[in-house]
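Batch 3, record 17
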Amino acid sequence: MRWRSPRACARSSRASPVEPQALEFCFDATMRGSLAEGARLEIMTTPGEAWCMPCGKTVALARIGEACPECGSYQLQVSRGEAMRVTEIEIC
Amino acid sequence: MCTTCGCGSETAHVEGRKITAGEHWHQHADGRWHRHHHGDSEDGHGHGDRRSGYIASLLSTPRPRHEGTVPHVIEVEQALLAKNDAIATGNRKRLAERGIFALNLVSSPGSGKTSLLVRTIEGWRSGTPIEVIEGDQQTSRDADRVRAAGARAVQINTGKGCHLDAQMVATALEQLSPAEGSLLLIENVGNLVCPAAFDLGEAHKVVILSVTEGEDKPLKYPDMFHAADLLVLSKIDLLSYVDFDPATALEYARRVQPEIEMIPLSSKTGEGFDAWLEWLELGVQRASARLEDTIAALQRRIRALERELAGRVTSA
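Prediction for the assembled complex:
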């Protein structure tokens, strides 16, 4: 009994401290010799978001340390995209 | 496994003993023994199975279907570091129950973390004990320095790992058993990248930046400064020899963490230590006060329940 091309999906943004390339590299190595050998890992990159205090609203955040795209302030609280999440796994 | 650089922590040791918490041995009906982690599912017992890590444990959870069946999608929606975060939450609860103020000290190697600890222990005038968890890839040199300064310490060797994780700290806490109301200083592995992602259950991450490193480090390593609540600027006795502007360093740190505070100090001359010790003392007092509030609330609840019980006994 084997899984046929199973798939795992994760969602991340550039505001997250997780490095997708390192994860992909280790995913292949970890799956080798297991039931899930040959599984594909799909990583979806979503935009990060932050609350801009001077603007008083949510703005897009490309990465931590970048200014508000609207007012240029760094008074930002990251509200979305700080963690990488496993969204779903698919098995056959 | 580190989600940032991919290094492993399978070789980690606390005081020379391999970390085996969360793992247990059991015997099958045929008399064979084997061990597995509590997180493993019954299906995924995996004798001789080389799977490891969080995603692998997710993949082991459902029973695989036979070939020919349609693909089957299972929604997971869990943070990649959910396992670490759950253990960190447990650590935080244990620390709060004992009114312990815990800090996670992070920096690049050589910024003066251990010297800061030694001078802090020597200068600590409060009656509450200081305990230390030391994280290094190898050797117990730092724990030895800390013990020589007069504090109890446990050394974690991360082996091939580049950071401390919540399980290592949970194991170290069992061994250290810190005193009620104490100050617990966790010195992370010298690394300005990976420790940022791992919650250990601390009250605050404190990032140490030495003036010899350059004031633009917060911009070059934003994740770490973003995760910290306090920036300790160390080695300020060398300020006259280097081109380092503390105001610029703080401005850069606030670009990635607008709320961050800075305490400049020198472990060599002791300059700035009054502010640092005062900040620590305040944290210790707050942790103890929270514990007293919790105890008072529980005692009120006990009295209320006793009254309720007495009422029922009388009416019955």
